[in-house]
Amino acid sequence: METQLLTMTPANAQKAYNNAEASIKKWMRESYPDFNFDRKLIDRIDTYQDACQELNIIPLAISDFSFIPSNDRESLYAYHQLTIIARVLNEGWEPDFSDSSQYKYYPYFVWNEEAAGGPGFSYRGYGYVRSYSFVGARLVFLDYDAMKWATIQPEFVEIYKAWMTFSE
Hints:
The chain is α+β, with helices and mostly antiparallel strands. It is built from seven helices and two strands; from the N terminus they run αααααββαα. The protein has a two-stranded antiparallel sheet with strand order 1-2. Helix 4 (48-55) crosses helix 5 (70-89) and helix 5 (70-89) crosses helix 7. The protein is globular and about 60 Å long. It starts with 9 loop residues before the first helix and ends with a helix. The relative contact order is 0.14.
């Protein structure tokens, strides 16, 4: 019998673990003692690249948006990144805007001229809506924790800034 080496991304290993029966989970823990299968999703997603890896998709670059007029390119690339991040952090949940009892969370930013790193957006708070939206429907979150995580990661804040402001 021929032996083959199989490789798996950490995201795929986590998915396999999450969907496995108890005996398989035990085997995976014993086989990979250095891998922390108990990490929460939000603890694994700090960048757009992490989000793409979790979805098993190839990250796009701004050059992939060269067909967009240059004055809109950075904003639309940022919007793409934010939709991927929200999709991952929502773990498959999609808002149902016909359900007025379903909460949907979105971040609220303010422009801060005296921010530590220079003028920029600061996370100010959050809102939730039940039957209507003030933000892009793809950018609402299932719960406060996912929404908050998307606003405190430095890379995510920069992506929000690129989406909401004009390029210089």
